[in-house]
Design brief:
Blueprint lengths: L8 E6 L4 H7 L8 E5 L4 H5 L11 E5 L4 H4 L4 H10 L6 E3 L12 H21 L10 E2 L4 H6 L1 H6 L3 E5 L6 H15 L3 E5 L4 H6 L4 E6 L1 H6 L12 H13 L10
Helix pairs in contact: 4-5
Amino acid sequence: MTGNPFPHGFGGKVHPSHPAHKELFAHRPDSVPFVACKFHRSSWFVNQPRFQFLHPDQDLFITTYESDRHLLGRTPRDEVDRYEKLEDDVQGVFPGDRFTYADEMNRRELVKEIEESVQRQLTVQDLMENIDLPVFPCIMGWEDWHFERCRPLVDEISRSVGFDATQYYSKYRLKKHIETMEEVLDVERVFVNGRIAPAWLKMLPKCVVACSGAWNIRQEAKDASGTLKGDRMPDIAEERVDALNEWQSDITNFL
């Protein structure tokens, strides 16, 4: 595994038992330096040797960015028990993301959701005291006061954070929200989960150093007959990494 525990560049968002994901992401350290596996699928790595999917130079991160049916009823203790089993195989974890919201929620309801997520993540951090794994907080929100509620996470866990972008349908909106998070919390590095279109990545601020995805990659890696071609991964990944590194400064900074 690499010496730097935070993800960098492009990573596959993996379902480790899925044949397509094995074809595209497994044993490809040069084009896929890390993979992000949802918590509920991480049991695969408990039951199978790491080398069945990962090259020794590929890093594995566990995330909790998943649907409510997998999150509901899960406790911080459940998470930590799994992390302990994977201590020798995982490079870091993004734990405790339990945050749901709807347009009709009022401020009080949003505060409750954010604070529950924050407390769950702090509890995971406390329970991880004797487990040698880096913990990176999952930040949630879109307005200044949402991010301010997340301040204990960066103060007590890490200034390198994860941000879930799977529900965004506007690159301008995503850019604005990440910039607001950076301004309010002074985060150092950001891993964006679920958005990997190069046009989107070019819009994001310099603090965004890593991204993960799968669906778009599967579409781009198909040939004319619809067959997946894993040998297309170097070019596909390079386009994402170039986009991450070609961040665009807001022209208003120079006016």
